[in-house]
Design brief:
It is built from five helices and no strands. The chain has 123 residues and is mostly helical. The protein has one domain.
């Protein structure tokens, strides 16, 4: 029972960190959700899939708060939603077929590229 409470506490902390990152940066909570979820005992692919699931309500709630403040551009909603949906479906199919090591390497490469882009961007 005590171990169950400890695990629930770790996952609660993980969720809080992911939610804060996602809201603060307008996304990206999944980038920290996957490593944090694996630290709480989830297998790699399960952590990737779970990160997607937990980001949905966080993103929706964050969007509502941003929208109330006028921080969004409605013209990008439909084309971006279509692209994200198609890409998400393809990614979900690939996740089931690719070896865990390959998924981790791709994930790490994307994090590195995102970090480099932010580091070297002029804004």
């Amino acid at each position: 029972m005590e171990q169950s409470k400890t695990l629930a506490g770790k996952r609660l902390l993980c969720g809080g960190l992911v939610g804060a990152a996602n809201s603060l940066f307008g996304g990206g909570g999944g980038m920290i959700a996957v490593p944090l979820l694996t630290k709480t005992g989830l297998r790699e692919k399960t952590a990737h899939a779970t990160a997607i699931l937990v980001i949905l309500p966080v993103s929706l709630f964050s969007f509502i708060l941003y929208a109330i403040r006028g921080y969004y551009e409605p013209t990008v909603l439909v084309p971006t939603a279509i692209g994200v949906s198609v890409g998400g479906a393809l990614g979900a199919k690939l996740l089931g077929k690719l070896p865990t090591k390959t998924v981790n390497l791709i994930f790490a490469a994307l994090q590195l590229l995102a970090g480099a882009f932010l580091f070297f961007s002029k804004t």
